[in-house]
């Protein structure tokens, strides 16, 4: 995995985000310098049962590389079996989620629940590593709670089990996505293992990524919510790392073009009718912070079809352009 990270050409990775990092989202992020993208988190049980919805998460294309596929589960044999199925797609790595704090995942003994069961976590990693030739990585949290920070110990178990790299989200499981990520934990994990460590948590701007790399010594950073409506963050990270300069933000026209391209790609991927619903959240993210965006979001929320939503979007950007003259 260290060889893969060195070959990526970018130390900025896109996190797996449920309901968000589908194929269209990944294809939008890549041209801006995202070094490695991950699929949405995929249920190992769902793959084995051949659930149509679960299999849909594996949709990819030749331009969707380098690609990591993320699995979750609590049964070593089932996760290994799912990994074998995924390996036929020839992903660049298979990631095992052991840090998701969502209740419906935890109650199955998967995700962050494994932060409380390190022996089982080790068996799962070992089973997957033995089952596939693809590099196996693991994504974890700082610990289950502030009183049980065990990421360094967890990372050593993952390394001993054959994991090629570990991603550390600096929040504890019981924090969810509230509060702040503790980057010091990421630094401690880096000191504890020899495999590459990827830092995750509170990267909202390019300068955050640069600071995380400097302060923790991690080998790469993973951007999650900071990439919502902002694929330009990867471009910014690349520029700051290469020459220390802050990249200029997108112009209004560039922003509008990417929104339209993303929307069109989403419609091609899941159909126009479904895209009318699924893309609304992206419209909110792409326009967040722009003048009058609250009124725009309110207007779009009342519209029912693609044509009227697109018309309102174009009118909104026309108003933004006129007000900037």
Question: Explain this structure to me?
Answer:
Helix 2 runs antiparallel to helix 12, helix 7 packs parallel to helix 8 and helix 8 runs parallel beside helix 9. This protein has an eight-stranded parallel β-barrel, surrounded by six helices. The protein folds into two domains: 242 residues, Aldolase class I (TIM Barrel, Alpha-Beta Barrel), CATH 3.20.20.70; 73 residues, Non-ribosomal Peptide Synthetase Peptidyl Carrier Protein, Chain A (Orthogonal Bundle). The protein is built from 16 helices and nine strands. It is of the alpha/beta class. Strand 4, helix 5 and strand 5 form a beta-alpha-beta unit. Helix content is 49%, strand content 12%.
Strand and helix order = HEHEEHHEHEHHEHEHEHEHHHHHH
Q: How many distinct beta strands? A: 9
Rounded mean pLDDT is 94
Q: CATH homologous superfamily of the largest domain? A: Aldolase class I
Secondary-structure map with pairings?
Blueprint: H1 2-7, E1 12-14, H2 23-29, E2 36-38, E3 42-43, H3 44-48, H4 52-56, E4 67-72, H5 76-87, E5 93-97, H6 103-106, H7 118-131, E6 136-141, H8 151-160, E7 165-169, H9 183-192, E8 197-200, H10 206-216, E9 220-223, H11 232-243, H12 252-270, H13 272-278, H14 280-287, H15 293-301, H16 306-324
Parallel strand pairs: 1-2, 1-9, 2-4, 3-4, 4-5, 5-6, 6-7, 7-8, 8-9
Helix pairs in contact: 2-12, 5-7, 7-8, 8-9, 10-11, 12-13, 12-16, 14-15
């Amino acid at each position: 995995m260290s060889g893969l990270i060195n070959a990526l050409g970018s130390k900025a990775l896109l996190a797996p985000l449920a309901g968000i990092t589908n194929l269209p989202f990944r294809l939008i992020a890549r041209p801006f310098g995202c070094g490695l993208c991950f699929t949405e988190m995929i249920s190992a049980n769902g793959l084995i049962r051949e659930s149509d919805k679960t299999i849909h998460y594996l949709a990819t294309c030749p331009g969707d590389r380098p690609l990591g596929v993320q699995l979750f589960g609590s049964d070593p044999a089932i996760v290994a079996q799912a990994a074998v199925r995924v390996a036929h797609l020839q992903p660049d790595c298979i990631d095992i989620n052991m840090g998701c704090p969502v209740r419906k995942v935890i109650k199955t003994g998967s995700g962050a629940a494994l932060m409380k069961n390190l022996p089982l976590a080790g068996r799962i990693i070992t089973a997957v590593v033995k089952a596939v030739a693809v590099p196996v990585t693991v994504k974890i949290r700082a610990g289950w709670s502030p009183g049980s920070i065990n990421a360094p110990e967890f990372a050593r178990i993952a390394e001993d089990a054959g994991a090629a790299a570990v991603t550390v989200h600096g929040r504890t499981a019981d924090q969810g996505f509230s509060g702040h990520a503790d980057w010091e934990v990421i630094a401690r994990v880096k000191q504890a293992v020899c495999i590459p460590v990827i830092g995750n948590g509170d990267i909202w701007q390019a300068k955050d990524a640069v600071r995380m790399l400097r302060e923790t010594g991690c080998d790469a950073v993973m951007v999650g919510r900071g990439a919502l409506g902002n694929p330009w963050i990867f471009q910014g990270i690349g520029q700051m790392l290469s020459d220390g300069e802050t990249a200029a933000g997108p112009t209004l026209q560039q922003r509008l073009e990417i929104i339209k391209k993303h929307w069109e790609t989403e419609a091609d991927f899941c159909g126009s009718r479904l895209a009318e619903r699924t893309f609304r959240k992206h419209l909110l993210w792409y326009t967040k912070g722009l003048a009058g965006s609250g009124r725009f979001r309110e207007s779009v929320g009342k519209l029912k079809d693609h044509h009227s939503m697109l018309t309102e979007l174009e009118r909104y950007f026309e108003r933004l352009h006129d007000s900037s003259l």
